[in-house]
Amino acid sequence: MSAPAILVADDHPMFRSAVLHALREALPQATVFEAASAATLDQVLAAQPQIELVLLDLAMPGARGFSALLHVRGERPEIPVVIISSNDHPRVIRRAQQFGAVGFIPKSSPADAIGQAVAAVLDGGAWFPALTAERSEEDAQLAARLAQLTPQQFRVLLCLADGLLNKQIAHELGLAENTVKVHVTAILKKLNCHSRTQAAVLVRALEPEAMP
Fold this sequence. Notes:
This is Response regulator transcription factor. By secondary structure, this protein is an alpha/beta fold.
């Protein structure tokens, strides 16, 4: 296997260190980047086009449940994403799979599981614990609706879900207020929502515990 470039996105420094150690043991030639928030994740992805794999924690500052997973899939669909989470409920694992992850590693897993999962995914495979939760049609429909959004529209949607006004969104994302208005109109149309509140409800459905 050639030397892969891997991004580890987790807000806990000690856990990131543990993952880095496991990766060095399994793939000593790998180049590893780190991110501690959704914003940093975005910056590293933009700055490092050579990244081949993302190991992603669901609970990071700036992320809402599966939003970071959906954002990476929209921004860089060619990059496989493996979720690493302390929430390993079968329903959460199934939702991660439906929202586009190619693997799921519970944080309670032994260190060598990380190396095995990464090797499997880099080889074109997948890595999931045994699943007992049923596939959800609601999640499939939600993923399909959100997939219509551009990466910038998805960022605007997350701001909407935080209750920000257009002026605040413009400041947050460095956009003109008129541009934000255009994005909001497009978002509501694509998601078939009649109000900003309806769109925010869709984002809340991305929380790992959210049930259809």
